[in-house]
Design a protein that fits this description.
The chain is mostly helical. The protein has a domain of 105 residues. It is 75% helix and 0% strand. The protein contains six helices and no strands. Helix 3 packs across helix 4 and helix 4 crosses helix 6.
């Protein structure tokens, strides 16, 4: 009995050690594959300088693609950004879907700030470089004018 217990304990420890090594090896392989993907992404351009032509191209492509999300032909905006980036690539501009999404957010933010500033009294009128294109895109969109309504309500309460 005294000899069997240490042998069983040693076998048990070896099996635990093997399974732990297998798990760690699998985890390291998975992690190193992620690094390879990250290294491949590092070869793509990190930043893209948006000029007037590329921004107008983006707005034109977005105008054509925006209804596809509303009609559910494109399931998510993530797919939409990918499609827009592919269209811009066909036009000769290497831009990532994330850069396209960030540009859209930036344009939306600047348009909202312009609308908000121009609705307030006592402030100088500001303009947005792509005001005409963005006003055609957004029109009377709820999320643009809802911000103004909330500001008006908070001013009334004071």
């Amino acid at each position: 009995m005294k000899l069997i217990f240490p042998v069983i304990l040693r076998v048990l420890l070896l099996t635990i050690q093997k399974s732990l090594l297998i798990y760690l090896n699998h985890h390291l392989e998975k992690h190193s594959m992620g690094n390879k993907e990250n290294n491949q992404n590092e070869s793509t351009p990190v930043s893209f300088l948006w000029n007037d032509a590329t921004t107008k191209l983006f707005l034109d492509v977005y105008k054509r693609k925006k209804d596809l999300v509303n009609t559910r032909k494109i399931k998510t905006y993530k797919h939409s950004w990918k499609n827009i980036a592919e269209d811009m690539l066909h036009s000769g501009y290497s831009v990532t879907p994330l850069q396209v999404e960030n540009k859209f957010k930036s344009l939306t933010r600047s348009y909202k700030n312009m609308v908000s500033n121009n609705k307030k009294t006592g402030r100088a009128r500001t303009t947005c470089k792509y005001e005409t294109e963005l006003s055609k895109l957004f029109g009377k969109k709820h999320n643009i004018y809802h911000l103004l309504y909330q500001e008006w309500i908070s001013a009334q309460r004071k």
